[in-house]
């Protein structure tokens, strides 16, 4: 049985077509870009970061968004700053209805915020006002949050302070790394962006101001954030390792040499190991913490590839007194 036919307002909402300027850089931006390309909207231009040197050969490598934009034949710009006169002129010439931003990594100057008719809409991977900044997914895991999500908000001069136009929630699993969680949020955020665009086109958005009293910050992570302090509680160590995986990565030291760490498992029944003390058998490698022990998963010794901890322990010929992290400051 057919339902009632949509009236003129419903048809206009469904067929509204937006000219979209897209700004993004990493893999996490691709689901939204792909969704826009598959939609009835028109992507009229793409902004992304310039090619960066990567790998041991320091080869210039385009961003994931740059690669996808070139594959799709889109107009692409990679300015070092949006204050560049040529870039500003180009943005104005696009006659975009809206700009969509996903992890772009550049500041939009205040006088450009109003250049598209509907401004700049940012997909942010947290439930704002929680975790404003560059590392919301990582910081949420490290802090032990159980629920997070993604928001689309109107970009304004402040750091992630604009009114919220849509949101989705996501549970943080007990074994989630920041890479796992970011991938899910990026997929969930893409249809959210399309929904908000439809609301903007139909003028049915209900902007929700952020509560400044609830704001928390998520500054960018550095290598130092991945240093494991074995005197911390086991739960904190587990969350920190998952939060910094895959980047910037967790690490400790053994005999002044760096050892990269993958996610660990808590072993509540083992409480007799001192912080950093190692107990290795044929089947597992345990390390003491400020609480119970943890079981190492995959590790990567300096200059070597990832391997199971048991294989590393056999090759390292660990003595009974092996302790991780005693010489962290001397690591190379």
TrEMBL record:
Keywords: Protein biosynthesis, Transferase
Alphabetized CDD domains for the sequence: FMT_core_Met-tRNA-FMT_N (cd08646), Met_tRNA_FMT_C (cd08704)
Reactions accelerated catalytically: L-methionyl-tRNA(fMet) + (6R)-10-formyltetrahydrofolate = N-formyl-L-methionyl-tRNA(fMet) + (6S)-5,6,7,8-tetrahydrofolate + H(+)
Pfam family, one: Formyl_trans_N
Domain spans labelled Formyl transferase C-terminal: 221-316
Signal sequence interval, chain numbering: none
Residues engaged in binding (6S)-5,6,7,8-tetrahydrofolate: 126-129
Ranges for domain Formyl transferase N-terminal: 18-196
Domain of life: Bacteria
EC number: 2.1.2.9
Keyword field contains Hydrolase: no
Function: Attaches a formyl group to the free amino group of methionyl-tRNA(fMet). The formyl group appears to play a dual role in the initiator identity of N-formylmethionyl-tRNA by promoting its recognition by IF2 and preventing the misappropriation of this tRNA by the elongation apparatus.
HAMAP family: Formyl_trans
Family, per entry: Belongs to the Fmt family.
Name assigned to this protein: Methionyl-tRNA formyltransferase
Species in which this protein is naturally found: Actinomyces capricornis
Gene of this entry: fmt
């Amino acid at each position: 049985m057919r339902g009632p036919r949509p009236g003129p307002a419903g048809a206009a909402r469904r067929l509204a077509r937006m000219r979209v300027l897209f700004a993004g850089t990493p893999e996490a931006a691709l689901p939204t870009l792909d969704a826009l390309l598959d939609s009835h909207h028109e992507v009229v231009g793409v902004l992304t970061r310039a090619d960066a040197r990567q790998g041991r050969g320091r080869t210039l490598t385009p961003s994931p968004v740059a690669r996808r934009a070139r594959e799709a034949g889109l107009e692409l710009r990679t300015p070092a700053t949006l204050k560049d006169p040529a870039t500003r002129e180009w943005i104005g010439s696009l006659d975009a209805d809206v700009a969509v931003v996903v992890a772009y990594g550049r500041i939009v100057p205040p006088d450009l915020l109003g250049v598209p008719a509907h401004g700049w809409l940012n997909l942010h991977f947290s439930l704002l006002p929680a975790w404003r900044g560059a590392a919301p997914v990582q910081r949420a895991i490290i802090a032990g949050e159980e629920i997070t999500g993604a928001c689309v908000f109107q970009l304004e001069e402040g750091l992630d302070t604009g009114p919220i136009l849509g949101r989705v929630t996501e549970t943080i699993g007990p074994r989630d790394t920041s890479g796992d969680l970011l991938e899910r949020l990026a997929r969930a955020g893409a249809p959210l962006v399309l929904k908000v665009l439809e609301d903007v086109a139909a003028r049915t958005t209900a902007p929700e101001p952020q509560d400044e009293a609830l704001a928390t910050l998520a500054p960018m992570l550095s290598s130092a954030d991945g240093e494991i302090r074995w005197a911390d509680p086991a739960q904190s160590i587990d969350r920190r390792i998952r939060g910094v995986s895959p980047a910037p990565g967790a690490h400790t030291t053994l005999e002044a040499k760096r050892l990269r760490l993958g996610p660990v498992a808590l072993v509540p029944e083992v409480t007799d190991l001192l912080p950093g003390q190692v107990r290795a058998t044929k089947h597992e490698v345990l390390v003491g913490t400020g609480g119970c022990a943890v079981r190492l998963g995959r590790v990567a010794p300096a200059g070597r590839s990832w391997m199971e901890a048991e294989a590393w322990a056999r090759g390292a010929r660990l003595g009974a007194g092996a302790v991780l992290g005693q010489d962290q400051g001397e690591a190379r």
